[in-house]
Amino acid sequence: MSRPAGKIAGFAACVLAAFAGQAAAETHFVSPAGLHVAPFTNWVDAATNIQAAINISLSNDLVVVSNGVYVLGSSVRVTNHVVLASLDGRDAVLLDGSALPAGQDAVFLQYGTLDGFTVSNAPRHGVKCESGAIYNCRITHARHNGIDSYTTPRIVADSTLVVTNTIVRKSATNGIYTCAVDTRISDCVITESAGTGVSLRQNDTTGVIQVPRVSNFLIRASSVSSNLNSGIMLAFFNFDENLPDVPVRIEDCLIENNVGVRGGGVADAGGVNTDLSSGVQIARSIIRRNTASIFGGGVYFHGSRSPSLSYSRVEENVSTLSGGGVFIRGGTMFNCLIRDNASASEGGGVMSGQGILCNNTIILNEAPQGGGASGGVVRNCIVYYNKANVASNISGGSISYSCISPLVAGSGNISAQPGFAGYDNWRLVAGSPCIDAGNLWLSAGDFDLDGDPRVWGGEIDMGCDEFYLPNLGGPLTVLAESSVDRAVVGAPVPFRCNVDGRPESYVWEFSDGYSASNLFSLTHSFVAPGVYTATVTATNADDLASDSVAVEIFPGYTNYVSSSGLHTFPFTNWVAAATNIQDAIAANIPGGVVVVDDGIYDVGGVAWNGGP
Predict the structure, then answer these.
(1) What stretch of H or E contains 11?
(2) What's the pTM value of the predicted model, to 2 decimals?
């Protein structure tokens, strides 16, 4: 029999090369078409079931499984540093656990490696790992956790969980559940769990703690999405001040569309008590479109171990109480963009207890009170263009060297418009009052959100962006908009623009001679009828780009309403008059007039405040 076409999964191929020529390491083969002749060292003699090949293997041996669907009758147990690898990757080899007895895991790892499989329909965990690695796999439809490493510190002293380039989806409880002493997750997708996407439970034990252990934890360059009990949940149990501090890190991740109670995207302890903060450090991540039913739509920090959020974007998250973007009881947040979040109570962008906020840009958030931020220590921040019934930008807190309107008490605060590159671009442009207006001694971090160095110029800039002229290059795209395309002479017409890219500056030029620089939103009125254009031109060292919008200006504009009219749009004379008032209002333009003929009008209106 010839060897099946294809090549061994990536990691396993490296292992095979590494041990080539070493007598201690052998390769064993599994194929339903094999003759099942031990020790299964070629495709002709291949084992017909996976466990037989594993059982005959010694430390560092490689077991290669040919393509196909393997319906498991018992858990696959990978131990003794054996590498179990598929021939052609996870799309070609399926381990189906649907026939396993209730309560069994599909795969068990104890000092073993799983590379390149789809594991599906496990009655309990997709992969139970006491110490091992999972590469290039797909773990789907486990009836408990997709990957479980929860009990490992009580069983294996040096428990390790490494998960790389793996998809974990549709787990009935959690995607990845771990308290391994060393957990490293990278380049993974964890999605659609009925519980938490990734859950770290440091030093968590049942009963007496035999050996207190804390866990190194890193999740990097991974997507965590659409999970129903927070995207990532972290907690520290049974706290003892003699336990060492260890890094708990989330880096370069996309965390989106998750739902939780405290912390829809990331929940640091959930706020149960002071023993439960992990001290997580979140960096260079995007946290967006998550929802919390209590606090922290995007992120919840308990704060007892100084967690931090840095160089990240927190956008479009929602909480039904406080902290639409971030709820931070303690810890630090620096060089972040907090934008377009909302809460139903307080702190649309950020709700802070004792948290320290440095060099953040907090814009376009909304809440009944403190639309941008509420409470905390606020330094070198831009808190602008937020909405609230009370305190539109900020409520309470200790504020210094920040750009907030209206002006708030505190050293170095300003209230002028910050000077952004557009309504959707938070970068500063030339002439911004926020440039060199911060205080270096109150800052944190050596770089801004783009990775440009702090400081350039005489002093640090306010907000998450440092105006760093040497890096203002690359392509530019400009969009100019007006809220209306027709208006009456003298009526104020709102305009706005966005410059995509990294502009140095931009200018508005109107065909009536008016001009303005570096304002993404403005209002202009025209003194004579005609068709006018407004052009926005943006520049940097590499590019010049522009866009225009036209507005027609009338000497006057009247719409008519009459019960005897023909109701012919746009209702600009008595013959064509609208027969209901609301249609005529809708057809009118800024500065125009709607004239209503005598009579009784009982249709076509809009109800306000619950009226008929």
Answers:
(1) helix 10-18
(2) 0.89
